[in-house]
């Protein structure tokens, strides 16, 4: 199937009972968004089908992508990420508020190893493994053009490497550990580790705008070469 068909299929997935209950039950429970209709389903990837760069996050947030239906849209992590993507030339605008806001991504596809919002942003290993098939199929569809992947955080790193290994990319054994600034070269694909753009990492100063922009500039230089 095509990427558009994959997006439609993933949006109807109900394979993880705990996450189905949470993604639907949490809708409308935050005062700021009371009365708003939530997406409350799995969130498909966002960005063009011929992307050269993929960004692998963690999972949708309860009142961000689980509300808006678009990856990283409508929460502080996304506000931070889209400012960086716009600065480095990968997004048409620095803000992302809702589907239909005019935002376009250039050569970049945002994907998440777990597609449903989990309680406390913590999917279980079993949920990560259940969702793996969606990530695997999406990366296989992107493979003809894909040249680099930015991984936001250790969870995404641990979810991604087995998928790449199973798809035939030469992932070393034992698998390299996640680190900010780590770069893995797997044949014609380069993987860049970056701390997650969560408010906690940003507010504590662990991660700065410049650090993330530097990772994306390095990843973009691969796709341009
Ligand atoms: Fe399906 Fe993934 Fe959501 Fe589980 S987390 S219900 S596998 S889309």
From TrEMBL:
PANTHER family (UniProt xref): TYPE-5 URACIL-DNA GLYCOSYLASE
Sequence similarity: Belongs to the uracil-DNA glycosylase (UDG) superfamily. Type 5 (UDGb) family.
Key words, A-Z: 4Fe-4S, DNA damage, DNA repair, Hydrolase, Iron, Iron-sulfur, Metal-binding
Domain Uracil-DNA glycosylase-like: 44-216
Family matches, as Gene3D superfamilies: Uracil-DNA glycosylase-like domain
Matches recorded under CDD domains: UDG-F5_TTUDGB_like
Protein name, as recorded: Type-5 uracil-DNA glycosylase
Highest taxon of the lineage: Bacteria
Keyword match Glycosyltransferase: no
InterPro entries registered for this protein in UniProt: UDG_Type-4/5, UdgB-like, Uracil-DNA_glycosylase-like, Uracil-DNA_glycosylase-like_sf
